[in-house]
Amino acid sequence: xxxxxxxxxxxxxxxxxxxxxxxxxxxxxxxxxxxxxxxxxxxxxxxxxxxxxxxxxxxxxxxxxxxxxxxxxxxxxxxxxxxxxxxxxxxxxxxxxxxxxxxxxxxxxxxxxxxxxxxxxxxxxxxxxxxxxxxxxxxxxxxxxxxxxxxxxxxxxxxxxxxxxxxxxxxxxxxxxxxxxxxxxxxxxxxxxxxxxxxxxxxxxxxxxxxxxxxxxxxxxxxxxxxxxxxxxxxxxxxxxxxxxxxxxxxxxxxxxxxxxxxxxxxxxxxxxxxxxxxxxxxxxxxxxxxxxxxxxxxxxxxxxxxxxxxxxxxxxxxxxxxxxxxxxxxx
Length: 332
Known about the structure:
The protein is built from 10 helices and 15 strands. The protein is of the alpha/beta class. The chain folds into 2 domains: 3-136 and 284-303, NAD(P)-binding Rossmann-like Domain (Rossmann fold); 140-280 and 318-324, Dihydrodipicolinate Reductase, domain 2, CATH 3.30.360.10. Strand 8 (191-198) and strand 9 (207-214) form a beta hairpin. Helix 6 (116-126) packs antiparallel against helix 10, helix 7 packs parallel to helix 8 (174-186) and helix 8 crosses helix 10. It starts with a strand and ends with a strand.
């Protein structure tokens, strides 16, 4: 029997991103609604949004007849297994509290909550309940990114020495994806130094340039970039005997390994390896749906990005914002 799913908040990541033909080409699993409709384990039953236009568009796009202006009515009228929360993060905490013990799994968009106090409250509330929560840091579900993490942690190219990373669209928007991946790979940073902050046109939050140090003396730079110029989100991991470059927002993976230098005896250089790593980022939401299905069916499976896991990301973001308060915003 298929699991019954509903969505609260019917904006871009929930549904309307499907209007972008180019995006659908690279991301076969693009939105929450598309994920539930395509995955064989789910049936999309209902949706809620306070915007009547979004409700009607959702109904027309997906053939879902049960739509609600008030998400509380949606919860009361339907016996659901899974609910995606895709609203503004300021009301995630309120919605999650109303969903607890009424559904098996909550799949919540990032940023998860407004602050770490709300995350801790949700951790406390779910400690003895029957509802599991996992957050959509979708690289944490993607097979390619998980494979690269294993390569770094098992030192396929030797010890990681340093990294460089770029992101746009603000710290809590894309920055959560970036820090989620770094923390999941290396652990919580031991040292954070904020070097600068910017606010780009069309963005309602700051972005920051940051120096980080993780355990085992792994250091790196995280730099913000103006997405109005062009899209840039990538990781470049420099290891003792090679390099792993996650480019083009995860759509391209480049591997390099140490070899004898062509121009100097006794020296070394990096060359592209013969190993081919195909990106699966376009199917990250499919893998997330697989995980949600298992969470519903097996009580002993823990969420990949539980509130407790996300807390380290939230605390890192808050420390960056705290340091950034004293900085002057650089003009863009």
